[in-house]
Design a protein that fits this description.
The chain is globular and about 65 Å long. The chain folds into 2 domains: 16-142, 2-Layer Sandwich (Cytochrome Bc1 Complex, Chain A, domain 1), CATH 3.30.830; 167-351, 2-Layer Sandwich (Cytochrome Bc1 Complex, Chain A, domain 1). The chain is an alpha/beta fold. It has helices at residues 19-31, 38-70, 74-83, 85-94, 100-114, 131-142, 191-215, 242-257, 263-277, 288-293, 297-308, 312-327, 341-344; strands spanning 167-171, 177-184, 220-226, 231-239, 332-337, 350-351. Helix 2 packs antiparallel against helix 3 and helix 7 crosses helix 9 (263-277). Helices cover 53% and strands 10% of the residues. Strands 3-4-2-5-1-6 form a 6-stranded mixed beta sheet, with helices on both faces.
Length: 353
């Protein structure tokens, strides 16, 4: 859970007859970008700032989850910086600047760090008949990138990560709030990860939906476990009673200890998980789970078997994992939305303006 790589993913797809043109477009995009076009850069920055803020309005719970998780898992810290509330605030600040030359210089510098041959990793999915043509075009494509030498290479070492769970609040002019509470989980192939995933499904269906939506009046909410990131999350969206919902998250853990789960309920929870992990994928997505997350077919099959073997006793054990983290204050919370006095006052919440 503590190891990860940072990178930029650029993807494309085409018909076999357009393979050459696809590589030409990719080369033009990566090697011939005109960073000096100030008006175009201004438009992109303004557009990104607007789009990201609109995204928070639509999916604030996802931003809350990312921020809360960033305090307990290093890879999620990177996700927060480049795609979370930190990036939203950064883009809005960037949209107010007039110092575009400074931005241009930094973009060129970043480009020189990233776009070198040794830093590239390539994944190609194609028919057997297109392999040779892709190999020829890929070799030609790679020759346009410089080799890194000692004089122009820049070693980069990730800072040492320290867990720093917190209660974070982002005041925004919304009539309702988005919330998330995250717990650190287990590596992908550890059997406890499957227990946590089934637990999340049971909590969402049999407790959280009723408590968060029907009683608290939120538009929706639930629990989820991400096997790749190892993060267990509670969340709510468009929630008028966020502080009550935070109590609901705690109560959900206690609820599991006293709840009997039938074989049918266990089976339905597992089925809902398999419907997502074994859902049909496009040809372009084949192999990407290994390319991006280094999860191979053997690991995926092991996880399927672990999911099938989860019992009611395993669910109780998984709840104890969350309970222990709750008692140790290892969970992290984030709320995005209306700045109510009970949140802003008292010093219990860290406010990000």
């Amino acid at each position: 859970l503590d190891k990860y790589e940072e990178g930029i993913i650029i993807a494309s797809h085409c018909l076999d007859r357009n393979i050459n043109q696809m590589y030409d477009i990719m080369q033009q995009l990566l090697r011939e970008t005109n960073f000096d076009n100030v008006e175009k850069l201004r438009t992109i920055i303004y557009g990104n700032a607007t789009n990201m803020m609109n995204s928070v309005v639509e999916s604030g719970h996802a931003y809350a989850k990312t921020f809360a998780a960033s305090r307990i898992a290093p890879a999620m810290g990177s996700s927060e910086i480049y795609g979370g509330m930190t990036q939203v605030y950064f883009m809005n600040k960037l949209a107010t600047t007039e110092d575009f030359q400074s931005i241009i210089n930094k973009l060129k510098e970043i480009s020189s760090y990233l776009l070198s041959k040794p830093s590239l990793q390539v994944a190609i999915t194609c028919d057997a008949e297109a392999v040779d043509q892709n190999e020829v075009m890929l070799k030609k494509f790679l020759t346009s990138f410089p080799d890194v030498t000692k004089s122009n290479s820049h070693a980069f070492e990730q800072p040492k990560f320290q867990m720093s769970p917190e209660k974070a609040f982002f005041p925004l002019p919304f009539a309702v709030n988005f919330s998330a509470k995250c717990f650190r989980g287990i590596p992908y192939t550890h059997p406890d990860g499957s227990k946590l995933q089934v637990l999340a499904s049971l909590m969402k269906t049999h407790y959280l939906h009723r408590e968060i939506r029907e009683k608290n009046g939120a538009y929706g909410g639930g629990a989820m476990y991400s096997p790749a990131s190892g993060i267990f999350s509670f969340f709510s969206y468009r929630d008028p009673k966020t502080l009550e919902t935070l109590e609901t998250y705690k109560q959900a853990i206690d609820w599991v200890a006293n709840r009997k789960f039938s074989q049918q309920e266990m089976g339905e929870a597992k089925l809902s998980i398999f419907q997502s992990i074994d859902a049909p994928i496009s040809v372009a997505q084949e192999g990407l789970i290994y390319f991006e997350d280094r999860i191979n077919d053997d690991m995926r099959q092991l996880r399927r078997e672990q999911l099938l073997s989860v019992t009611e006793d395993d669910i109780k054990e998984a709840a104890k994992i969350l309970e222990q983290q709750e008692r140790s204050n290892w969970s992290s919370v984030a709320i995005i939305g209306e700045g109510k006095p009970e949140i802003l006052e008292g010093g219990k919440w860290k406010v990000y303006q």
